[in-house]
Amino acid sequence: MKGLDKLLSELELQQLQKQTRRHFLMDCVSKMGGLALFPLLNACQPDSGKHSLNLSERDLNPLASLAPPFIPKVKSVIYLHMAGAPSQLELFDYKPELVKYNNQPCPESMLEGRKFAFIRGVPNLLGPVAKFQQHGQSGAWVSDFLPHFSKIVDEVAFLKAVHTDQFNHGPAQLFMHTGSPRLGRPSLGSWVTYGLGTENQNLPGFVVLTSGGKTPDAGKSVWGSGFLPSVYQGVQCRSKGDPVLYLNDPEGINRSLKGKIINAINQVNKEEFAAVGDPEILARINQYEMAYRMQLDVPEIMNINDEPDYIHELYGTLPGEEAFANNCLLARKLVEKGVRFVQLYDWGWDSHGTEKDTALDLGFRNKCREIDRPMSALILDLKQRGLLEDTLVVWGGEFGRTPMQENREGKTMGFKGRDHHVDAFTMWMAGGGIKKGTSFGKTDDLGFSGIEGRVSVHDIHATILHLLGFDHEKFTYDFQGRPFRLTDVEGEIIKEILV
């Protein structure tokens, strides 16, 4: 009962503080300042000055399900991000000329005026370390590093000439997931849950799953809510151990008592909101209630042990471990239960060739083995359950890799590796609204720059929002005196990959 006693004592202390002379005088001072400041603030943001408790359902439940402005093609998103940036030249962008000129000095024209993370001087070109073949009716080029994926290429649309302007991992990951390379902007998943809420009130609208042993270089900001209310930030769950910390009640606290405690806490929160009007108080109310409801559904949904043997074989899952395969299966279970946005981050794709783990023909190939079966299984599993037509699956990294072998500080690495590259990389999408078996965009003969169908990070975001039923130019949130949007002042829908 120690936990309950502590909560009761804190409540009693708060009530006593409001009755003290010190609290009275402090409150008077703040209210006098507020009276003087109110006319100035009112000129910028009209408000009655009174924060009524007659709140809307959206106020009391920020994750209430909403309809988008336009008819959507999908209602859920599963985003597979390979943190560290996989090499497109070993996976999807086959360049015979790069094979031909392997180990030859890089042309000066490719280096002049360019900045790279580590390359210095004149490096040699590096041919692909994988073997390529065309697959499916679409004839898509896929390397032998992805034998399972090569069987489902007719389900996806490739974007071969994606570009970015950030060549360091942290800023590039922020840019890919928030639309800005600087901290403080809401993530894509936060925008989606802000606009649509969730279909399952016992689960968060935005769930994050990580694998590879580490979180992305940009940290948890890539699934943060930025200036949106914090209720819209991603909820990180674990595939190993308890899916959410403190999921079980402490000893001596049953569910009925827990409900009464939360009701009491939120009554205080409502009174506090009436006094100060801080929208974060409403987010706090919802988070208490969401945590209470999550105790009902999360243990079952995050348990993959009860899945049939053929599903474990399909995904190559490792129950009880932190694994990308487990997370792919969990992603299917989550969208099946109405979660709006599921974000998977798999760390370990930074293939510089400084050691075995970062060598293209060693560590990189092993990473491909880890994702090949489960990401292919995810597409097939969603399809056979009738979920793919309502779900958008996105795959990619934060930037691409150079056609040149990395020569860090002018010295060739001991293993085969490539430096960061912003000019061209490959992403793919599958699911509702996506034209199957499509390849859009083209790079030059050496895979250095996009020469046709170049698309930006903002274009990717505009397309995702479009499929969810939003006009990215009108989907905004007022902050610091102006409306902000995910795509800033750019972004075009990539119509060529849409049906």
Describe the protein's architecture and organization.
The protein is of the alpha/beta class. The protein has two domains: 70-244 and 306-497, Alkaline Phosphatase, subunit A (3-Layer(aba) Sandwich); 251-301. The protein is 33% helix and 16% strand. It contains twelve helices and 17 strands. The strands form five sheets. Strands 1, 4, 5, 6, 7, 8, 11, 12 and 15 form a nine-stranded mixed β-sheet that branches. The chain has a two-stranded antiparallel sheet with strand order 2-3. β13 and β14 form a beta hairpin. α10 runs parallel beside α11. It is globular.
DSSP E strands, number: 17
CATH architectural group of the largest domain:
3-Layer(aba) Sandwich
Largest sheet: 9 strands, mixed
> How many H/I helical runs?
12
Mean pLDDT rating = 88
Strand content: 15-25%
Q: Termini distance? A: 59 Å
Rg: 25 Å
